[in-house]
Amino acid sequence: MKKMQNQIQAIIEKTRKKYTFKPIKNNVTDVIVQTILSQHTSDKNSWKAFEKLKKRFKKYEQILKEKDSELEKTIRSAGLSKIKTKRIKKALAELKKINLKELEKEKPSKIQKELTKISGVGPKTAAITLIFGMGKQAIPVDTHVFRVSKRLGIATGKTPAKAQEELEEKIPEKYKAMLHVSLISIGRTVCKPKNPKCEECILKKHCNYYKKIFQVKKNIEQRF
């Protein structure tokens, strides 16, 4: 346990020097809808769909009254429009029953638990809502955070949801959002799925994956 804590602290210190980020206060409903649109597509496509949706519907109540086929046309660029239309409508209907101002007063763990009761809102979406909607700390685990945290050795869960549970417990509260953003950046630029650029990574000294690669390389060199 002590070894893991030291490793996490070292990773935090390294990333803090390069990455700065503070949670953002925003429209919670906007964040949830945008996150649903972003599922299984690129940021560019989901943002295009979100902009079209906001331009066409001035209030979310209008979406609930609109035909599914019309909403599908509006968000088509995000892909899976039929599925996302149903998810968005269900989420909006359920959000109407929640007092978000009161919910925001609760602890992040309590808020996440309540948000995941909403249709289409999983652990990642709930955590994203905390960071980018409520201005609170959380550590959503997407494909990049999942891959990097597993390679570092600070998460062992077999799914992003399980890894998120681990990281929520292990990472000090005030650094969660910063680490989320930094691991995404590292995952996109250095720690790629194939051919990761380990030698360029600022976290290589604290990475289990790199240590294994380095040891294998060292063993091979010693044979010749």
Describe the structure.
This protein is mainly alpha-helical. It has two domains: 2-21 and 140-199, Endonuclease Iii, domain 2, CATH 1.10.1670.10; 28-132, Endonuclease III, domain 1 (Orthogonal Bundle). It contains 13 helices and no strands. It has helices at residues 2-18, 28-38, 43-56, 60-65, 68-74, 81-95, 100-103, 108-115, 123-132, 143-152, 160-170, 176-189, 208-223. Helix 2 packs across helix 3 (43-56), helix 2 packs across helix 9 (123-132) and helix 8 packs across helix 9 (123-132). It starts with a helix and ends with a helix. The mean pLDDT is 92.
* CATH topology name of the largest domain: Endonuclease III, domain 1
Instruction: Please give the alpha-carbon distance between the first and last residues.
Output: 38 Å
The count of domains is 2
Number of H/I helices: 13
| CATH top level class name of the largest domain | Mainly Alpha
Q: Any idea what the radius of gyration is?
A: 20 Å
> What string, H for helix and E for strand, traces the elements in order?
HHHHHHHHHHHHH
Mean pLDDT rating: 92
Number of beta-strand segments: 0
**Structural classification:** mainly alpha
